[in-house]
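Hi R.,

Here's the chain you asked about this morning:
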Amino acid sequence: MSKPAILIVEDEAIVAEDLSGIVQHLGYDVAGTIASGEEAVAFVRQRRPALVLMDIRLAGKMDGIAAAMEIHRECDLPVVFLTAHADESTVSRAQQAEAFGYILKPFDVRDLRIQIEMAIFKHAAGQRLRASEAALRESEERFHSMFERHLAVQLVIEPETGIIVNANAAAGRFYGYSCEQLCTLRIQDINQLQPEEVAEKRQRATREQCNYFVFPHRLASGEVRWVEVYSTPVESGGRLLLYSIIHDITERKQAQEQISTLNRELESRVLDRTNELQETVTELETEIQNRHRLERGILEISEREQCRLGQDLHDGLGQELSGIAMLGVVLTKKLRAQNNPLANDADKLATYVSRALDSTRRLAKGLYPIELERSGLRLALQELADQTRSLTRISCEVRHNGAEPKLDKPTEIHIYRIIQECIGNAVKHAMPKQIIIETHTGDGMHIFSVTDDGKGFAVPTGSFGMGLHLMHYRARLIRAELTIEQPETLGCRITCRLRGADPIGGIHSSQLNLSENKSERRCDLI
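And here is the predicted structure, written out as tokens:
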């Protein structure tokens, strides 16, 4: 780090040389030794030493005081006078030169050192102070310019009293007062809230607990405008003030109030319409429930009538045909005993009646699957497959996978009827060679499927026929899923998937009573 350089201005060579040695001994560099004031000013302009040790009486027209004034004016360097003159006139002129020190000859080296150190320190501190003051002035001027020229309304307020300390031109235009008039008012003269509430808001802003507020402000015309205020504490001139930026939000607030009113009206209308729709939905739900109840009733009546017809065929017509067949056999025996040629005709008649009896029994079992009631779904499906083979000469088999499904009787009846309808549709429309009935129970699922190898079936996308409609309806009653798909080969597969064994709608086990005694078998809806 370079040492501070000191310029020595002394017209006596011996004194100058002595001073040069002392300065170097004190740890400074000697920038030069000059004998006249004019040369000193010229030197300082070019070299700028850290300090000038200046004798007052110098050779030439310019003495030390005049040279010091010029150096101070042009170069702002510290000058310490070193002279043997202490008369009042000389001291007075030296004070005007704003010297940083005044040492009388002969001097003490320690005093010289102190004067040099203090002069350099005071000069540096003065430079820093002047730089700070200049920056402060520039900042204040910039703020004042921004404050005055800004288009936003701005006020400076004394937080304790509410006095308006300053207001910009935009504030004057907004409030309808001149800036001078505004500075004679208090903010509570403008703010339409209660003075106590306004004071409390100012204190909150001062403590920086809140810096955003919405107030009603009264203009000079008497009109009240809604404003939003951003207020923050600032320090100026040693006192704390509130700097506030104010925006007119009257139109926005009116729009918000209008929107709130419209929202309340809309909410009211929506609520009324929702209530109307809820009433309509309730009516529709009631109608749907009534329709489902009616459909279930029709299905129950249909099931009951099938049971009745099956029992009537079995117990009525079947018994009568059985009696006729027995009479035909007896008649054939008697005619043969008499060698009557009509014996063969009687035998044929008995055979036809027996066939009619078998057909009646099969029809009765189709209408009323008594095997389902006696032995369960698996055996009933096996009997259905046997009947299909016997009646249609089409291969029909049952394949069981997993445990036997544990279902209640109403569910078994619906499953049986769905499979029965699938087989009937396949026989009637698909002309298959083989029909496979599959059951699978596992993982909480019961799966039943009917697959044929017929000519295929186009999966319907719109409305269903009666048969498919009934199958889908039965599936919905037991909360099952019914799917129709085309296998890779020709044919059709209809699958019914049932999860668990939940209670079902439709025909409940408590409603359906299948009973049998010695004289009759009946199916009644309790």
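One quick note: Residues 502-526 have pLDDT under 50 and may be disordered.

Cheers,
M.
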